[in-house]
Task: inverse folding
């Protein structure tokens, strides 16, 4: 099994990066792994920590319509250049945490995606340079208030609510080019989404190169690489699970927003 890099919070509130062992204990690192973090003597048992989203990026850049079948279901073609948008870091939530249904929306959709973790500062990188700066991979759900996306002239509100970027549960360094991405709702036996990541219109290294020509990428930044066909509505109480071969699964439940007191 590939090494799984996690970000955790201890029962005392300390936040660490670490390596998840088969026993579910965590070997704590002295820094984020993409910054050269090394194992320490501290090992935490499963009852001593909570798994957080696997990184805390300065920004989240996402790519729209990067699978031809999804572009078609949205009523268009794959663009000639990547369509980019941003999600705020405050949208991040971890595996097992709730997605909150915003009161402004009447339709919230799931969008299972492969996420890239940037390992080095990248500015105007070639595709070859970009390949080496992709430090690892994790799973994301680009949750979208679809009615607001259609209503607004841009996507910030529809994509930016708190909890609208489930991420995790961990990072792996290597991933097969033919790994399959699938999204399930509740206990349905058949996936709503199912595609090989090789079906992307723009490859991960091209995406990183393209973005680095627009904005400087920093270590720990996240890039969402687009979603395949099969996006659809979630209702309050639904559980959505995104699986990617070679990584694992990310599961979250859609719930009503907490009452303001």
Result:
């Amino acid at each position: 099994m590939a090494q799984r890099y996690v970000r955790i919070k201890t029962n005392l509130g300390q936040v660490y990066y670490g390596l998840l062992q088969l026993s579910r204990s965590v070997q704590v690192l002295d820094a984020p792994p993409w910054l050269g973090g090394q194992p320490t003597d501290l090992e935490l048992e499963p009852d001593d920590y909570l798994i957080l989203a696997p990184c805390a990026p300065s920004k989240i850049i996402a790519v729209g319509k990067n699978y031809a079948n999804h572009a078609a279901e949205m009523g268009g073609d794959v663009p000639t250049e990547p369509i980019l948008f941003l999600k705020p870091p405050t949208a991040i939530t971890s595996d097992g945490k709730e997605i909150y249904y915003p009161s402004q929306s009447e339709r919230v959709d799931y969008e299972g995606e492969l996420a890239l973790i940037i390992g080095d500062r990248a500015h105007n990188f070639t595709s070859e340079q970009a390949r080496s700066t992709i430090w690892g991979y994790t799973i994301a759900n680009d949750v979208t208030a679809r009615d607001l996306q259609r209503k607004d002239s841009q996507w910030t509100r529809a994509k930016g609510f708190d909890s609208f970027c489930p991420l995790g549960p961990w990072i792996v360094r290597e991933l097969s080019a033919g790994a399959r991405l699938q999204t399930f709702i509740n206990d349905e036996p058949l996936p709503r989404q199912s595609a090989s990541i090789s079906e992307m219109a723009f490859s991960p290294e091209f995406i990183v190169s393209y973005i680095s020509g627009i904005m400087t990428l920093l270590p720990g930044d996240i890039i969402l690489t687009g979603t395949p066909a099969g996006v659809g509505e979630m209702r309050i109480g639904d559980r959505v699970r995104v699986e990617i071969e070679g990584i694992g699964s990310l599961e979250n439940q859609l719930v009503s927003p907490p009452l303001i007191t």
User: Anything to note?
Assistant: Helices lie at 68-73, 127-133, 146-151, 156-160, 204-212.
